[in-house]
Design goal:
Helix content is about 0%, strand content about 60%. It is mostly beta strands. Strand 5 and strand 6 form a beta hairpin.
Length: about 120
C-alpha cells in the first residue's frame, strides 16, 4: 500500500501564492510520475501538472508561467508552487503518484486539498 499526504491548501486573494506538498510513503518501489490534478465544483477532474523521475515536466495551458511543479526524490515529496492565483484556480487539488513495486505497476490518489481564490 501507498499513502499520500497533501498539505498547503487554503484561502488566498487573487494574485496571491500558495505552495502545495504531497508526501508518499509505504511500499513505493520506484516512483515514476507524480502529478497534481484539480476538480472544481460541477467540473471533471483535470490535469494541472506532472513531473517524471528525471524531472521532465508537463503543464496545463491554463497554469503555464504561473505554477511550478517540483519533487524531492530523497523525501518522496512533490510540490506545486502556485503564483498569480486567479479565482478560476479554485478547486480541490489532488496528488497522484504512479510507479512500480513488488506487486507491479500502481497508481494512487491523495485525499485532496482545497484551494480557494477570492476575487
Amino acid at each position: 500500500q501507498v499513502q499520500l499526504v497533501e498539505s498547503g491548501g487554503g484561502l488566498v486573494q487573487a494574485g496571491g501564492s500558495l505552495r502545495l506538498s504531497c508526501t508518499a510513503s509505504g511500499r513505493l518501489g520506484s516512483i515514476t510520475t507524480m502529478g497534481w490534478y484539480r476538480q472544481a465544483p460541477g467540473k471533471q477532474r483535470e490535469l494541472v501538472a506532472t513531473i517524471t523521475s528525471i524531472s521532465s515536466t508537463n503543464y496545463a495551458d491554463s497554469v503555464k508561467g504561473r505554477f511550478t511543479i517540483s519533487r524531492d526524490n530523497a523525501k518522496n515529496t512533490m510540490y506545486l508552487q502556485m503564483n498569480s492565483l486567479k479565482p478560476e484556480d479554485t478547486a480541490v487539488y489532488y496528488c497522484n503518484v504512479r510507479g512500480v513495486g513488488v506487486d507491479g505497476w500502481y497508481g494512487y490518489w491523495g485525499q485532496g486539498t482545497q484551494v480557494t481564490v477570492s476575487s
